[in-house]
Amino acid sequence: SAYLKISDGCNLRCAFCSIPSFKGDMRSKAMGAILGEARELVEAGVQEIILVAQHLTDYGRDLKLKDGLATLLDEICQVVPQDRWVRLMYAYPQSITPGVMRAIADHPQICRYLDMPLQHAHPATLRRMRRPPDTERTAALIRELRTAVPDIALRTTFIVGFPGETREEYAALLEFLDTMEFDRAGFFRYSQEPGTPAATLEGQVSERVKQRRWDEAMAIQQEIALRRSRRWVGRSLRVLVEGSGTADDGAPLIAGRSYRDAPEIDGLVWARGSAPAGTFVDVRVERATPYDLWGTLVAEAVSAVSRQRSTLSGQPGLAFDAVAASHLLS
Ligand code: SF4
């Protein structure tokens, strides 16, 4: 995997965040430069390109591009073949456009995965955080995303113990968590960042309360993540192999990531079988835990993938058939 930064800085001013104070406002990289870098990564054999930015979904605003990220995704998918992955990191909910949803749904190389830090779910907390307080709108957007992009894996992060967070506000966060059922959710205990407006807010929450809320939210999310993971039992998933080893009984075992798993953040897919690191295989999922999935490598799918690779350069039609054939196995 390789990270490709598409912009730097952020135009927003969340009360807890110091990034804009040292990065400044968002500056988008020129689209031609991004496409050039993507082309080099493809030629170097990189299987997964992770487009990253503090505020990815605002891409191109400073370049006066209309629906900049959607346009960039369409262009990048002309450069990245359909048997590689493009992953998007750090979407801001209010700037996810129908065009972006359409691009994720249309292009097979774009992982059906969105990391969308929401930080909280109670309007009053969000207002103190200086973030859009309209939780209903966020909920509607999530429903829309799930309709437009079936099986999309949604990751988010929340802050617990933000200054002034009352029991009611915290309860609203838990309720939102329960209703929206994110595939992945991370929680941070609020910590005072010097120089940020939130650091001097009244009503700082004690460490003991922050810890209790964090423990509880984590436990609730574990159950939700398990329910979401169990939906994959009995189905097949394309997996990018990261390493291999042996199971307790000495049988060969691979570990890799599906489209649902960003590197070093999410879980792994473990499967009986062997395949070299850096290749794509299909795994039939047999067991789920909150973070990881376990299964068996589907041998036919592996050969479909290698057939697909060997045909990609010269005969795109055949390559497409191979992709379709491997999907039929799932
Ligand atoms: S939290 Fe994210 S969106 Fe908010 S100011 Fe920081 S970088 Fe920008």
Strand percent estimate: 15-25%
Helical content, roughly?
A: 25-40%
- CATH topology value of the largest domain: pyruvate-formate lyase- activating enzyme
CATH class of the largest domain: Alpha Beta
Going by CATH, the homologous superfamily of the largest domain would be: tm_1862 like domain
CATH architecture label of the largest domain: Alpha-Beta Horseshoe
Biggest beta sheet attributes: 6 strands, parallel
How many helices does DSSP assign?
A: 10
Q: Tell me the strand order in the biggest sheet.
A: 1-4-5-6-7-8
For the termini, the CA-CA separation is 24 Å
Number of DSSP-assigned strands? 13
GO biological process, one term: molybdopterin cofactor biosynthetic process
Domain TRAM: 230-299
GO molecular function: 4 iron, 4 sulfur cluster binding; aspartic acid methylthiotransferase activity; metal ion binding; protein methylthiotransferase activity
InterPro entries: Elp3/MiaA/NifB-like_rSAM, Methylthiotransferase, Methylthiotransferase_CS, MoaA_NifB_PqqE_Fe-S-bd_CS, NA-bd_OB-fold, Ribosomal_uS12_MeSTrfase_RimO, rSAM, rSAM_horseshoe
Descriptive keywords:
single chain; alpha/beta; pyruvate-formate lyase- activating enzyme; 330 residues; 38% helix; binds iron/sulfur cluster; 22% strand; OB fold (Dihydrolipoamide Acetyltransferase, E2P); globular; five-stranded mixed beta barrel; six-stranded parallel β-sheet
Provide a brief overview of the structure.
This protein has 330 residues and is α/β, with parallel strands linked by helices.
